[in-house]
Amino acid sequence: MGNAVIRFDQVSKRYEGGHEALSQLTFEVAKGEMAFVTGHSGAGKSTLLKLLALIERPSHGHISLDGQSLAKIGRSGIPKLRRSLGMVFQDHRLLMDRTVFANVELPLVIGGIAPLERGRRVRAALEKVGLLDYERQLPASLSTGEQQRVGIARAIVAKPNVLIADEPTGNLDPQLAVEIMGLFAEFQQVGTTVLIASHDLPLIKRMKKRVVVLDHGRLVADVAAEEVL
Amino acid sequence: MSTPTDVQPPTRSERSHRRPVSSWREHHSWSAGASLRRLASKPVGSFLTIAVMGLALALPLAFYLLLSNAQSLGDALGRNQVINVFLKPDQVAANAQLLAKQVQQHDGVANVTLKSPQQGMDELSKMQGFSDSLHALDDNPLPYVLEVQPQDGLSADAVGHLVDDLRGMQGVDMVQDSGTWRQRLDALLGVGNRAVLILAALFALAVLLVVGNTVRVDITSRADEIGVLKLVGASRAFVRRPYLYAGIWYGLSGGILAVALALLIEFALVDPVARLSQVYEGKLHVGGLPPWLLLAVPIAAAFLGWLGARLVSAWQLRRAA
Ligand SMILES: Nc1ncnc2c1ncn2[C@@H]1O[C@H](COP(=O)(O)OP(=O)(O)OP(=O)(O)O)[C@@H](O)[C@H]1O
Ligand SMILES: [Mg+2]
């Protein structure tokens, strides 16, 4: 497939002193595709995403992102790779002593964007997640779902081609979870490639997207969007 | 590829914002602001750090001030330096005048005053307690005295040679040189100068350590934030920059505080030094802190703060990586 944005080729990961968290994993995600990675706890979902963001390195195999081999990226190249990725975390990883605006602004500051342009883009991102009125607040004064949406705004503000999310709805009530997943689907609709790790099977089924199922680090099923019941 | 937040491709201005120079500027202004916010977020701790550095740097400045005043005191006294040449009692007025002329011709001599025994007697009789006992004397026992004023700025060695020459002259009984104390003072001031340099070096080291430790604690307490910055793509330089700025702010503030303290000390010294100056007929020039030093101290302190932060953050962030 020529248009694969994410490509795993015979990838294995063994943590130091641990068993194999991923073994011989091979799959691709096409440009503009949205896919879920699911499986029971400890199946290797987070590990898969960490390999993509170079938080961990594979023990074997080959990973490429946007046609670029991750093995060729050294320590000094990691920040650039991460700037090209939007990442959302279950625990949202916000700076609690900075305002919502400052949190969302962060990737743009790192990207060296001028203040005026930053303001414009931050507001566009906050509007997208429905938090335009919250820009001056501290994350602590927001609800869990709102905090998660701030995390999503931060992930999309620099307009990454690829968005990855690890349990983005992990501690949200079902209604909110559906809303958040809807947001990701919207980004897919404008061309962003989206990969989400989640164990919330009912929610995943509802979204009618491709599902990659892991079990003990092995790929056991890869269900295309049309086949999701 | 189209974009999620708004579907337009990057505009021209957007692309130009990515130029390295402007991104460098954005990074620095953000880091400078972020570091100031951090200092302000814990005002007591920041103030204590700055106060410790201010005091540490003020100490060598205070010593410098005392020393330069002692030096100018020595200079003022040195200008009054007189070598008294006592002639042998058998010398008559003509001989004394001839000798005075001879001495006047000597290289290092600025001025020679001849004092007759009678003048000496008159001076003594003006002093309290002496007049009665002087009346008891039949003869004037005092010899002719040449008061020799060496030229200004003559080195201690040259004065020593002059004294030797005077001692060797015919008809000279005794030479009293008040210059030895001056030599001692010079030697003492030399030791003092060296001590100030060593002190300054030690306290500079203290500033380095204080800033280094403050930054170390700061980095440790901000491990989460550093993790987040790295996850959203911040380079090591970007993560580190606010700490370097913090080091600069600490150093600069400490340096300014030190200068302010030193000026306060200088101000406190003005009165007593002025009184001392009166005693020496205004010949004593008050040695204040030179303007270049007032400027150099904050700049040097800022550099030290930056250096301390740089050393510690390099080490600390590598460990955190
Ligand atoms: N840093 C680590 N060091 C050692 N072992 C690890 C590390 N991180 C994960 N593992 C192990 O790797 C395996 C896969 O973990 P991973 O976090 O990828 O699972 P997961 O599918 O995300 O699970 P969950 O649904 O609970 O988040 C687990 O057995 C886990 O114990
Ligand atoms: Mg996980």
Automatic annotation (TrEMBL), chain B:
Keywords: Cell cycle, Cell division, Cell inner membrane, Cell membrane, Membrane, Transmembrane, Transmembrane helix
Residue ranges annotated for the FtsX extracellular domain, each copy included: 83-175
Topology class, membrane: Multi-pass membrane protein
Subcellular location(s) per record: Cell inner membrane
Family matches, as Gene3D superfamilies: 3.30.70.3040
Tree of life domain: Bacteria
Family annotation (InterPro entries): ABC3_permease_C, FtsX, FtsX_ECD, FtsX_proteobact-type
Domain ABC3 transporter permease C-terminal per the UniProt entry, residue ranges: 198-309
Region (Disordered): 1-25
Ranges annotated as biased composition (Polar residues): 1-11
Transmembrane stretches, start-end: 47-67, 195-215, 243-269, 289-309
Principal cellular location given in the protein's record: membrane
Its job: Part of the ABC transporter FtsEX involved in cellular division.
Subunit structure: Forms a membrane-associated complex with FtsE.
Family: Belongs to the ABC-4 integral membrane protein family. FtsX subfamily.
Name of this protein: Cell division protein FtsX
Organism: Dyella lipolytica
